[in-house]
Amino acid sequence: MRAPLILLGVGLAAWPITASAAPQSLPPIPHPPPIAPSFQRGPVITADVENISLLLPTAQATCGGETVHAAYSDDLAVQSVQSAGAVETPDTLIRFSIAEDGRTRDIKPIPSPHGRFTSHSADPLAALAAWRFAGGARSDCLLTVSYRPVPIAEAASGDLLRYFAVTRTRGAVRDAVGNRLAGAEANCGGDRRGGRRPRTVSYPDNLVGQRPPPGGKAWTVVRWDINAQGRATNVRTLGSSGDRAFDAESRRAVSATVVEGGAPLKGCVYNFYRTGPTLPAPAMPDRADEPLGSCPTDVRARLQIRPNPDTYPKGFNDRQIEGWALVRFDVATWGQLGNVTLLDAQPASAFGEGGMTTVRSSRAESGTTPGVGCIVPVRYHIGARGNGETTQAEAPAE
Asked: Residue 393 — pLDDT band, cuts 50, 70, 90?
């Protein structure tokens, strides 16, 4: 499959505005328990990672001070940190609200007591956008994500699997985790094909079985050996998020892959994941223009606001979650844009940051008329994944 094409639509707004796609109303989808069978402890971890701890996340959601439980949620990423001394990791705090259909909105991080949003905090924002809650609309909601440090040498199999499959990093820590998963006798070298040139490659069909809901993710970790003819043997699932159809499809893909022959190899380990369908952005609200706002037609014609896909928030892009931002700004006669202000962004403030970056990097042709209170909607869209589908970029709104 091809990677998704990111389309970002920008247009000057004349109110009222409606979104290009309405939000979906979804029934609560239960989340199956993860599968994490035990396995043999692998080789001793090398010195360069022996002082690493995994940060294991747990999340609690409240609305109005009362605990609420998600009807659907998926795994948060496990992070890692140097742990030569005591590990103190602040909680990640995220404000949000719940719409009538159970979708989360108004997602915005609360800075840590140290005055910054920690580097491991971005993942829960996008994950929360895919969660669903039952019970109708709620406001004043808070997601608290706490992190428990565990030395990597003492981590349980389920925690190692989540780091390997959900966090999806590269480097010495991932290699050490992969060695643990592979087992003491592994000699595949941490490479999916054991360094062998592929002869036949098969990939899982992501449409097999029940896909995750829009914005959701499923993962699976597979271990296998390679015989002298280059064929996979002893293929088994080490653990997964609980999607058994995807587990079986991933094992089939591994079994159908053939590499060039050679000395037999043991303990090849790889993770596969799939996302649900694209989650459309919530609808834009209808609202009156600012009473003092003035953005004449000739000013609009001079504006050069170009889409900037680089501003698409990565975690939301990875989950195929769409969003939008409404940005207000002024235009000077010499073409400079200033007083850039975010009016609204959904489903998360991350789209507002991207939208303001897009506007700030734009300008207008010089003229005799200034613009005050111009408003532009910046829409973030996920394009087609292939399979014969085509996607048209959204035309600018007038």
From this structure: very low
Burial-class residue 392 by CB neighbours within 10 Å (0-12, 13-18, 19+): exposed
CA distance 250 to 2: 18
Dihedral Cα 318, 322, 326, 331, nearest 10 deg: 60
Least confident of 74-78, 86-90, 185-189: 86-90
DSSP E strand boundaries for the chain: 6-10, 52-63, 66-68, 70-72, 79-82, 92-98, 104-110, 132-133, 138-151, 198-200, 217-226, 232-240, 258-259, 265-275, 303-304, 323-331, 337-346, 363-364, 371-382
| Alpha carbon distance 235, 182 (integer Å) | 12
Average pLDDT over residues 306-323: 90
Q: What is the pLDDT of residue 395?
A: 28
Contact 358, 311 (CB under 8 A): yes
Cα-based distances in Å from 304 to 32, 50, 361: 49, 53, 10
Percent of the chain with pLDDT over 90: 53
Cis peptide before 347 (omega within 30 of 0): yes
Residue 112 to residue 117: CA distance in whole angstroms: 6
| Range 284-316 burial, b when 16+ CB lie within 10 A, else e | beeeeeeeeeebeeebbebbebebbeebbbebb
Winning range, highest mean pLDDT, from 82-96, 243-257, 381-395? 243-257
At 190, the pLDDT band (50, 70, 90 cuts) reads confident
DSSP H stretches of helix in the chain: 122-130, 157-162, 172-182, 244-256, 297-302, 314-318, 349-360
Helices (H) and strands (E) in the chain, counts: 7, 19
Q: Is the pLDDT of residue 5 over 50?
A: no
What is the spatial distance between Cα 381 and Cα 358, in angstroms, rounded to a whole number? 15
Rg (CA), the chain: 24
* Residues contacting residue 258 through CB under 8 Å, at least 6 positions apart: 198, 199, 200, 229, 230, 231, 232
pLDDT of residue 387: 34
Q: What is the pLDDT of residue 391?
A: 26
Q: Is 115 exposed, middle or buried (0-12, 13-18, 19+ CB in 10 A)?
A: exposed
The token pair that represents 316 in the structure block: 């939301």
Instruction: Between 375 and 39, name the one with better pLDDT.
Output: 375
